[in-house]
Structure to design on (519 residues):
């Protein structure tokens, strides 16, 4: 089976301010398995460690106990508290909360960045910029483009290396609804081509239902999975259809979050 | 007239003419060549020295400026980047840096001459040592201001340390390099003159000392003007276009 396995024994956030238990425990014994090519969403309140989890999966954060491995052939031994293994995934891509484009590179150069060394990078980047409808702006610098356009370019860059795993951390936050809707459509369109495994972090339930095949609901800290729900709605999903609305109602009633104490409300 | 005044180039031109005009007026009021020669005296003096050894000395000084400049930029940047990236090293050596910044140029120059002798190496080294701390401070601040979030993008796409430096760190440091280069050029040529005055037998500084002993203000201004013009053309025709090209994305 080609799967992405995440087994986290313990993850502590090294902050000086400590909560009641005396430590900033983010995860304890968190286990997830994600099928290859699945579009998964991590849903939960702000500050519940979703971004931390993406950073662990991507390999940016190696300060945890446990392991993350890709396409495993039956895990040989169970991770102990002392083992930290982050297999460097060969083909992972990450779209952050802000587009993080290089301001000194043009739109097309930004898209090309992950695959610069490949021979056909020019062609791939051009095809992508056409797909996102910005070929007219290919030689513009990001600062001269709107927030929505910058996010399109960020999305194209994330798909440029043709990743096996694509992580998205609330990528469409702080753009208006019309634009974020079109960005979501674009994401589905790009995903459909080669179907990488996608992990999409959001705190917008509607967005999770529109996009994902499976939603993991995370609790407040220390974060646990409250619910693992498969979405079977046909695509394209309409936010105002009856089935959609009733599912949204069901899910939000199932996962009512307790008011968390104000200081754990901070983003992690 | 109104449209001409809107032209930036024209306004700059007018400003230079105005300066020469004011200079001429003041020199006429004073009426003493030793205190302030007129622009015409100076331009004639330039013509005279140009047919003599002016360009020989200017060339030698320029060579010293350029060598000291690159030496200071390379060493200063390297130290600055390391100090900016390594907090511990920064803690250790910040005090040294402040000390180095506060040593007067004259002291470094004399010490270099005492230690290494009255030679070319000592001269260039003395100038570079004066400039290194300022370059280090500017580049260290630039390095501290580097956006780690962009570095993370490089890490995600498995770029090597060298690639990250070249493709992500250096572009973010460019504005700081340019500002260090600009202030460096202006400072270095002034120090080079002092070095030449104290321990060299050629170059603009040496000549100015010679004219000083003869109270030849006209020749002093002639040499100064020529050298200032050269430094200004480096700024206009080299530094500025480079800056424009390298930072066009910031507009």
């Amino acid at each position: 089976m080609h799967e992405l396995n995440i087994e986290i024994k313990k993850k502590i956030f090294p902050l000086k301010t400590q909560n009641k238990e005396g430590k900033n425990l983010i995860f304890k014994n968190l286990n997830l398995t994600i099928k290859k090519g699945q579009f998964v969403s991590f849903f939960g309140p702000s500050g519940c460690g979703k971004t931390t989890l993406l950073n662990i999966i991507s390999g940016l954060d190696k300060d945890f106990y446990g392991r993350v491995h890709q396409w495993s052939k039956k895990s040989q031994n169970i991770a102990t508290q002392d083992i930290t293994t982050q297999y460097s995934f060969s083909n992972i891509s990450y779209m952050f909360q802000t587009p993080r484009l290089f301001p000194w590179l043009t739109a097309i150069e930004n898209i090309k960045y992950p695959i610069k060394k490949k021979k056909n990078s020019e062609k791939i980047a051009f095809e992508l910029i056409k797909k996102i409808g910005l070929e007219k702006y290919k030689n513009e610098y990001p600062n001269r483009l709107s927030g929505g356009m910058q996010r399109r370019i960020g999305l194209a860059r994330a798909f440029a290396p043709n990743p096996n795993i694509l992580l998205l951390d609330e990528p469409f936050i702080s753009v208006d609804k019309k634009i974020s809707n079109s960005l979501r459509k674009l994401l589905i369109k790009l995903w459909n081509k080669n179907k990488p495994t996608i992990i999409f972090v959001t705190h917008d339930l509607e967005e999770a239902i529109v996009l994902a095949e499976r939603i993991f609901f995370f609790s407040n800290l220390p974060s646990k999975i409250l619910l693992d729900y498969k979405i079977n709605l046909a695509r394209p999903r309409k936010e105002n259809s009856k089935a959609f609305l009733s599912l949204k109602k069901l899910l939000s009633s199932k996962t009512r979050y307790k008011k968390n104490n104000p200081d754990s409300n901070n983003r992690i | 007239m109104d449209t001409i005044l809107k032209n930036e180039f024209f306004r700059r031109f007018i400003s230079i003419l105005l300066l020469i005009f004011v200079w001429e007026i003041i020199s006429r009021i004073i009426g003493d060549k030793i205190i302030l020669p007129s622009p015409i005296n100076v331009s004639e003096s330039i013509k005279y020295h140009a047919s003599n050894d002016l360009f020989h000395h200017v060339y030698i000084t320029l060579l010293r400026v350029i060598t000291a400049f690159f030496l200071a930029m390379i060493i200063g940047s390297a130290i600055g980047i390391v100090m900016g990236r390594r907090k511990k090293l920064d803690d250790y050596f910040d005090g040294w840096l402040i000390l180095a910044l506060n040593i007067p140029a004259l002291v470094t120059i004399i010490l270099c001459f005492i230690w290494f002798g009255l030679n070319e190496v000592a001269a260039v080294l003395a100038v570079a040592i004066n400039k290194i701390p300022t370059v280090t401070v500017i580049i260290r601040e630039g390095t501290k201001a580097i956006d780690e979030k962009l570095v993370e993008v490089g890490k995600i796409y498995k770029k090597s340390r060298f690639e990250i430096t070249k493709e992500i760190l250096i572009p973010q440091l460019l504005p700081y390099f340019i500002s260090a280069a600009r202030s460096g050029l202006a400072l270095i040529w002034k120090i080079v003159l002092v070095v030449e005055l104290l321990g060299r037998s050629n170059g603009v500084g040496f000549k100015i000392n010679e004219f000083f002993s003869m109270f030849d203000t006209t020749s002093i201004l002639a040499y100064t003007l020529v050298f200032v013009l050269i430094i200004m053309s480096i700024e206009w025709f080299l530094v500025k276009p480079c800056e424009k090209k390298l930072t066009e994305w910031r507009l």
About this structure: Residues 74-81, 259-268 of chain A have pLDDT under 50 and may be disordered. Helices of chain A lie at 50-58, 107-112, 121-131, 147-159, 177-194, 205-211, 242-254.
